[in-house]
Design goal:
By secondary structure, the protein is an alpha/beta fold. Helices cover about 40% and strands about 15% of the residues. The protein contains 27 helices and 17 strands. It has a seven-stranded mixed β-sheet with strand order 7-6-8-9-11-10-15, with helices on both faces. Strands 1-2-3-5-4 form a five-stranded parallel β-sheet. α2 packs across α4, α4 (about 55-65) runs parallel beside α13 and α15 packs parallel to α21 (about 460-470). The two termini are about 50 Å apart.
């Protein structure tokens, strides 16, 4: 918790309280709110820089609009902490991202002020447009606002929504929060375009005054006003010698505006909130505003962990020399090592170069690495095009984000049986980011797609070997999934070897009287081995452990061999049980006409809440203690 709450902020429990303040008190409130966020996140880590950057905008929105009747849809909840604090969750904020605490992202189940769930990017315009059209159909006086960053504007869905907004009756307001950052710097033509926009403030003022004058004289109605937008935009293009992309889509454009001038923001929002038709307000902000270290290095301070709020020094946990590396770093170093030997290898990532550690290759080989922005579908199809030209793309996308590119994998990759590697980082339970970020559906999704190879390494050494295997000639599309966090082997940097596709291996065989065999996919096998070691000696002797490596094609020979030797089977996967690895084992047994009890351990058919990875594993019985309990129960039944 904070040491103290500012005198104004302490009075704010709902936006109704905020509206009681005089407009000239808002800068002080913004300072107190920003300090509250700094105080809280220094001890309870979360997404830092993005929320600091929108403090003034958040205050202005809740000051001007009548939330929750008016809907504010946030694009990516990274920027919604100030929103949560002003909407009744200040006293609970210390529980942010903790088990059973408030969620790190907007969630309608948590608060009526959270208009739409926001765990990923680029959906705000579409969602808010739907809300606005619904309000228009109901002839409601309610309003809808979408808040989207320039990074999220690189996503195709944002442009689909923008295009649709120009062709249907709505009164949507879009706030474009332009800070030139996603997690890393925003890339591509849109970012460069936004830098060049220099709309005439004189023209905006003239158009606003003319619009109000015509309304006052009764020469135009609110309903009719929207019909004149395109002609107004043409006039603007003539006066300012510019024609913005947005106005070309018949969306009224206002800006660019200083996003840290809260009083001016309030006045502008008050001026335009009743304008009919879609409109976009372009504000410029600084990520990490108000905390110098975050302003100077926004990427590092996106989610910095604990830090000293007085010195700005990050409190980084000590890393021992023999500590296993992060799986993402093994990927990054191995990719660079392979790319040095094979000049056909290229790297592709949708705005997650730092997150997936593709930065190692990017720094040494910038011409062969591509950050395509927050555009997962494009990343996959772009990689497919590279593959058609004889390149070997390693396309790295977080498992939960890959869900947006499922169609692209099927139609653009698998159907053509292209040689490319898809690496799914953060596969499994990611922890505090919760349900929107858990990567638990990829196994079930991709098992059904022809031509795909789907594998998961037991440890860091196998990750290297799988990457090396996937790079062999004519391998076809190859998916490798691995989890968030550290692995299990410190001495991982060994010469790479080709692994036989579709073959598992025995980690531990039963010494005598085989009773229970455990079939695992991925690094959870290490935890299963530790659980077996916790059993008494006699029970250990009756247990077998098999690392299956491949979910598709599954090693059916090994499955059938194990089923004929043991009395019972246990499958373990860090993915959805419905249609996942355990289902593949059951299908294999059914096809062979073998009946044997199978206990499947994995993610049940519900969304998993936020909490630390260790807490979530314990709740699901996937930690060593939970697995030991299950193994004992299965031994007693055998």
């Amino acid at each position: 918790m904070t040491e103290s709450v500012g005198t104004l902020l302490s009075q704010i429990n709902t936006p109704a309280d905020l509206k009681k303040l005089a407009i000239d008190q808002l800068p002080q409130l913004c300072n107190e709110l920003r300090q509250f966020i700094i105080d809280e996140l220094s001890a309870n880590p979360g997404h830092f820089g993005a929320s600091l950057g929108v403090v003034e905008l958040t205050v202005a929105l809740h000051y001007v609009y009548n939330t929750p009747e008016d809907s504010v849809v946030w694009d990516v909840g990274h920027q919604a902490y100030a929103h949560k604090i002003l909407t009744g969750r200040r006293e609970k904020f210390a529980t942010n991202r903790k088990l059973h605490g408030i969620c790190g992202f907007p969630n309608p189940k948590e608060s009526e002020y959270d208009a739409f769930i926001a765990g990923h990017a680029s959906n705000s315009i579409s969602a808010a447009l739907g809300i606005s059209v619904g309000q228009t159909l109901d002839k409601s006086a309610k309003r809808a606002v979408a808040v989207i960053g320039d990074g999220a504007m690189t996503g195709g869905l944002a442009f689909e929504g923008l295009n649709n907004a120009s062709s249907c009756r709505n009164n949507l307001t879009i706030i474009l929060n332009d800070n030139h950052m996603a997690i890393d710097h925003v890339v591509g033509g849109l970012s460069n375009y936004l830098v060049r926009i220099n709309t005439s403030k004189r023209y905006n003022s003239f158009r606003s005054k003319l619009y109000k004058f015509l309304l006052k004289l009764g020469l135009v109605s609110n309903e009719e006003a929207g019909r004149y937008i395109q002609r107004n935009n043409s006039l603007k293009a003539f006066i300012s010698k510019q024609h913005t992309l947005f106005e070309g889509l018949s969306v009224r454009y206002f800006g660019p505006i200083d996003g840290h001038d809260v009083i001016n923001l309030v006045k502008i929002l008050q001026d335009i909130k009743d304008y009919k038709g879609p409109k976009i307000v372009h504000i410029r902000t600084k990520k990490g505003k108000g905390f110098k270290p975050a302003e100077e290095c926004a990427t590092e301070w996106h989610a910095p962990g604990k830090f000293d709020k007085n010195t700005g020094k990050r409190i980084v946990p000590e890393i021992k020399s023999d500590q296993p590396p992060l799986f993402q770093d093994v990927f990054g170093h191995t990719l660079l090592e392979m790319a040095r030997e094979n000049n056909q290898i290229v790297g592709v990532t949708p705005a997650m170069a730092t997150g997936c550690s593709m930065t190692y290759m990017m720094h040494e080989m910038p011409e062969r690495t591509f950050d395509v922005g927050i555009a997962e579908g494009h990343a996959v199809t772009f990689s497919a095009g590279l593959a058609k030209e004889g390149k070997l793309p390693f396309c790295n996308i977080y498992s939960s984000f890959m869900q947006r590119a499922y169609d692209n994998v099927i139609h653009d990759v698998a159907l053509q049986n292209l040689n490319m590697v898809i690496c799914l980082d953060r596969a499994g339970l990611v922890g505090n980011d919760g349900a929107t970020h858990h990567g638990v559906f990829d196994l079930a999704c991709f098992r059904a797609v022809p031509n795909l190879i789907v594998a998961s390494p037991y440890n860091e050494i196998e990750l290297r070997n799988l990457m090396f295997t996937a790079a062999q000639p004519n391998m076809g599309p190859f998916i490798i999934r691995y989890p968030r966090g550290r692995g299990y082997v410190s001495n991982w940097h060994l010469p790479m070897q080709v692994m036989p596709v579709g073959k598992g291996n025995c980690v531990k065989d039963a010494v005598t009287d085989p009773k229970v065999a455990v079939l695992t996919l991925g690094p959870r096998g290490n935890v299963a081995l530790n659980a077996i070691k916790k059993l008494d000696a006699g029970s250990q002797d009756k247990m077998g452990l098999y690392n299956m490596v491949f979910a598709k094609p599954i090693d059916s020979e090994l499955v059938l061999e194990v089923a004929q030797r043991y009395k019972r089977l246990v499958t373990i996967e860090e993915g959805a049980l419905a249609g996942g690895f355990g289902s593949a084992v059951l299908e294999c047994l059914s096809d062979a006409g073998i009946s044997i009890p199978v206990h499947r351990i994995g993610i049940p058919d519900n969304f998993i809440e936020h909490g630390s990875q260790e807490e979530l594993y314990a709740i699901l019985g996937m930690d060593a203690d939970g697995l030991q309990k299950t193994f004992n129960e299965e031994l007693q039944k055998s």
